[in-house]
Amino acid sequence: MRRRQFLHAASALSLAGCAGIGRGHAARVVVIGAGYGGATAARYLRSWDPDISVTLVDRNAQFVSCPVSNLVLGGNRTMADITRGYDGLRRHGVQVLNGDAVAIDPAKKSVTLASGSVLSYDRLVVSPSVEFLYTEVEGFSGQDRILDAWKAGPQTVALRRQLEAMPDGGVYVLSVPTAPYRCPPGPYERACQVAHYFKRAKPRSKVLILDANPDVTSKAALFKRAWQELYPGMVEYRPNAKVIGVDASAMTVRTDFDAVKGDVVNVVPPQRAADIALMTGLITHNNRWCDVDWRTMESRAVKNIHVLGDATLSAPGMPKSGHMANAQGKVCAAALVELLAGREPNPNPVMNNTCYSFVSDKEVIHVASVHQYDAGQNTIIPVKGAGGVSAARSEQEGVYAWSWARNIWADMFS
Amino acid sequence: MTRKLIVAAAVACAALPSHGQESPAARSLAATCAACHGSEGRSATQEAVSLAGLPREQIVSQMRAFRDGTRASTIMQQIAKGYSDQQIDVIADYFARRPR
Question: Which of A82, A109, A110, A130 has the smallest number of CB atoms closer than 10 Å to its CB?
């Protein structure tokens, strides 16, 4: 009787459990995607509980930052400046695998890689980035002369080469998809960077922005002022100009109203959460995004899987940004440390966002926000009265922006 | 007996120091500063101030000055307004105890 009581208590204990007890092995977390969300989650999991085994999988052997990558297009930074390695994470005890996660089995709690190897997990973190929906723009493949360059890497370099090869007097056409998309201010910053390059190297050239949205989606007044004052007559902005088709041989893009010819054509594609999220049933909204519990980042569709970054159905007022993904990675890591130990996660997570845009080689504007969990609304919301945008562009913020990049990369990787 | 054991075990679990000896809520709150000010408040740059090892009162007074607009800034006025007094105290406590 006494023995039975004790066994009873022991099994209840393992349910309530301290880390490791009842599991028979150290808690295992697998993280898919080593960008702003995934790398941060992996690093903080190891920092906050070194007893947790963390395996981080990414297709790329190195990290190339999307934030700041527009500066490469403007000729103001190199690819080396925005590339980081994963050795720092290895020093934290993260097992970093260069591989492609091709399938998740939520019932067996396992991830299969393209190589055929299978990783088992107690909790899975999916920070998979976005998939580009090329087929929503007729004739667009992202593989020919018309590039997206919306994931920093080879296409960033290729687009820079196209701009360098373009004759003076040419037109660079940039298409912006309907929001939400990765990095709301990114296209407008890109227009600034290209204009900055043109102003120096080919001053008779033009930048034409075809925006599917009714207005500039972020820092609108500041961007428009920069175009007028820094690049007068060079940047043309057309709202409500959704590109529905492209022709790479003619170098034209088509909207509902007309066709436009460019010398360099750059289409930011419509987006949804990456394929692995779709295949796993993590997408909950509009066939595009993954809803999560903002206290833990756990999927609202599939248990034990946590989704981070641009793939999430953004909470109110929350942009799809690298800084936001970094914040989500920490909330997720903190929650996993508690959940894997059988404790309650923090009921009041806080996140913030800071997003800098370079309107020239040195001058920068920002948008910032602070987000606190609201139990009544069951989501995380921006604090009223906090946050905002720059009063004006400044070189001071340019210094802060580059400092931000170095600190957030260090926060993820060293 | 059973209940006592469970309660004792639960208490033991709760009392176990999380690694780093700080409450999970405090270190999570402090971690919201890291993207700009460096992990554990140690900045990798000259331009962003390191918060680690700063006196508690200094962090509290500066955060309040930013929030109330008595200290000029580009961005910190907007960030500071997002945190409550109590949260600022927790963050300040946390960083004051970190090694520089």
Answer: A110
Which alpha helices (DSSP H) does A92-146 contain, by range?
Answer: none
The answer to whether residue B100 neighbours chain A at the CB level (below 8 Å) is no
Which pLDDT value is given to residue B9? 42
**What integer pLDDT is reported at residue A22 of this predicted model?**
59
Tell me which residue of A87, A18, A83 sits closest to A56, measured CA to CA: A87
d(CA A31, CA A325): 14
pTM, to two decimals: 0.92
Inspect the interface and report whether the beta carbons of B28 and A17 lie closer than 8 Å: no
**Cβ–Cβ gap B36/A407 under 8 Å:** yes
CB atoms within 10 A of CB A99: 16
Q: What is the ipTM of this complex?
A: 0.91
Q: Is A87 strand, coil or helix?
A: helix
Residue B36 touches partner A, C-beta closer than 8 Å: yes
State how far the Cα of A286 lies from the Cα of A97, in Å rounded to an integer: 32
The torsion angles phi and psi of A298, rounded to 5 degrees, stand at: -75, 140
- Chunked mean pLDDT (size 10), chain B, 100 residues: 42 41 91 98 97 98 97 97 98 96
pLDDT for residue A25:
87
A403 and B5 in contact by Cβ < 8 A? no
Question: Contact A407/B27, CB-based, under 8 Å?
Answer: no
User: How far is CA A405 from its chain centroid?
Assistant: 14
For chain B, domains (ranges, CATH) are 3-97 (1.10.760.10)
State pLDDT tens for residues A381-394. 999 999 999 999 99
